Amino acid sequence: MLSVEKRYSTARRTMELSLAHPAIKAFLCGCVSGTCSTLLFQPLDLVKTRLQTSHSSLQPGSRAVGMVTVLRSVVRTERLLGLWKGVSPSFARTIPGVGIYFSTYYSLKQHFLQDSSPGAMQAVLLGGGARTAAGVLMLPVTVIKTRFECGRYSYRSVSGALRSVCRTEGPGALFSGLMATLLRDVPFSGIYVMFYSQAKASLPKEICTSGSAPLANFTCGILSGILASLITQPADVVKTRVQVSPQLRTAEAIRSIYVEHRLQGFFRGAVPRALRRTLIAAMAWTVYEQMMAGFGLKS
């Protein structure tokens, strides 16, 4: 009897989900893909943040700190689980953030293009528009996440960090680095979607409809992510500096980075960021497209 009721309940939930608005399905698909990618690749984000905020401990002429050195230092001083420090705010940002991104992307695509494939410039606008909405809405959590990872603040929880920032620095601090964040994320998303959509369009139809389609999509995502990450890396360094030191304006942060490290300073943390952003984006899009196909929707 209980087994029958359980099957009935499962079937009812499945039917309710199948009747949901396509944008809600896109949001749910994005949330699932964001959860998977964040849990797997959080250590790379922490290493990237530590590399970009290690300037204060370096003396002029001293040897630059590398990715492996930071990894060893974190594991030695904070244990292995220290690599997942900041995963709570990462979840709080990424799960709804990726959901908002994909639901906005899907809604914009259906409104302007219906079921046709976007051209290069259309893909840039779709990706940039979706990222603008998600980036602005989730910026306060992004600020908290960055502070968790840099190791300079002793926050115990996301809610506690939010209260502390509002009390000591004012609510405006939660939107520090807005310009640098948009300058980083909007071009990244636009460039990524452009390369990704064009790469997918060049694939033979037999691959797109075969069992190897997820692998092909993932490969397209990897190539697109590497290109987009390298192009937008300087903006990421500036964004991190502003969010860790909110008294700095964007122009001041750019000048500070250049004075301390010259041009190479704008590419600090490029390797872990490229790895993380590329793998996260590739996985997110692959999971999203497979789930949307399961709902019978064209992503």
Defining traits:
single chain, 299 residues, mainly alpha, 76% helix, globular
Structural features, described:
This protein has 299 residues and is mostly helical. The protein is 76% helix and 0% strand. It is globular and about 50 Å long. About 2% of the residues have low confidence.
Distance between the terminal alpha carbons, to the nearest Å? 39 Å
Order of helices and strands: HHHHHHHHHHH
Helix amount: over 70%
Shape: globular
Unreliable stretches:
56-61
Please count the beta strands (DSSP E, at least 2 residues each).
0
Strand proportion = under 5%
Q: Averaged pLDDT, please?
A: 82
Brief write-up:
The chain is mainly alpha-helical.
Write the layout of secondary structure elements.
Elements: H1 2-18, H2 22-52, H3 67-78, H4 87-113, H5 120-150, H6 158-168, H7 178-201, H8 205-208, H9 213-244, H10 250-261, H11 270-294
Helix pairs in contact: 2-4, 2-11, 4-5, 5-7, 7-9, 9-10, 9-11
